[in-house]
Amino acid sequence: MILRTTRILPELIRINITLSVTLSACAAEFLVSEKISINLIFPLVAIFLIACGASVLNQFQERKQDAMMNRTKDRPIPSGRLSPQKSLWISIVLLVSGLGILITKHYWVCFILGIINILWYNGLYTWLKRKSAFAVVPGAISGIIPVFMGSTTAGGTLQNPPTLLLALFLFIWQIPHFWLLMLKYGDEYRLAGFPVMTDIFNINQFKNIILAWMIGATGTSLFLVSSGLWILLWPKIIIIGLNILILGFFFQQLMFASKLRYKIIAGSMNIFLLIVLIMIILDKIFL
């Protein structure tokens, strides 16, 4: 039984998302820390555990809706591979473990931010998704709180300008990423009881909205380059070149393509985010 649970754990915690969250916190640490320290690992482990626990709790909360959508019906809980009770206990263990590390290491601001993020994501956002198609906009705040958690554990403040810039980029990036899913799986979301954007806008209007937010996300990354977030030249060149490629691809897909390549679009957005975060870390390492 333990072995079976271990096998489905990466799927349960949505490992790709939780690792991205942890990487964003790591990038924030590198932005504000004066030196690279082994002690920075502890809050990252805590942030990872909290993100995992919140993900499991979210799947517990939305298990009935997940069972109604083809995209999510094979997740561990709706597929019957894991009982709701066990998933709830797993989420509690993960959340308590992550918060416990922060308490033990006296990262009190990070601890408070962790509590706020759990309440925001598993409380407000999960509830709001069933009420409004625009829920992702306030919901995106839960995706940037880990940036501030990482920054404060490295000695930064909540008003630290580099941290605010990185948070702005991540905030804008999340919204078109989610709306692409809604564009592809809108009928499934509607069937599961979630309001969808195509109930408010037609397909072409919705595509224009997504493209505008994508332009905002890439434009924000260019602002990061001009703001001096990177000191070395080669990370700047990589980010600028990546922006040109990804904007051209987005524009072609959303404006002219007869059939959208959703996997390629979503994959390119994820790679875009990953490269931005890695460039921040590498810039500090090589300096």
How would you characterize the overall build of this protein?
It is built from 12 helices and no strands. The chain is mainly alpha-helical and 287 residues long. It has a single domain (2-286), classed as Orthogonal Bundle (Farnesyl Diphosphate Synthase). α8 packs antiparallel against α9 (161-191) and α10 packs antiparallel against α11. The longest helix is centred in the middle third of the chain and has 31 residues, at 161-191. The termini are far apart.
Structural class, judged by helices and strands?
mainly alpha
Helix content: over 70%
Helix run count: 12
Q: What distance separates the N and C termini?
A: 48 Å
Based on the coordinates given, report the CATH architecture: Orthogonal Bundle
Order of helices and strands: HHHHHHHHHHHH
Sheet with the most strands, sense and barrel status: none
Low-confidence stretches: none
What fold name goes in the CATH topology slot?
Farnesyl Diphosphate Synthase
List the defining traits of the structure above.
Farnesyl Diphosphate Synthase; single chain; mainly alpha
List the helices and strands and how they pair.
Blueprint: H1 2-12, H2 15-32, H3 41-61, H4 63-67, H5 84-104, H6 108-128, H7 136-139, H8 141-153, H9 161-191, H10 203-226, H11 233-255, H12 262-286
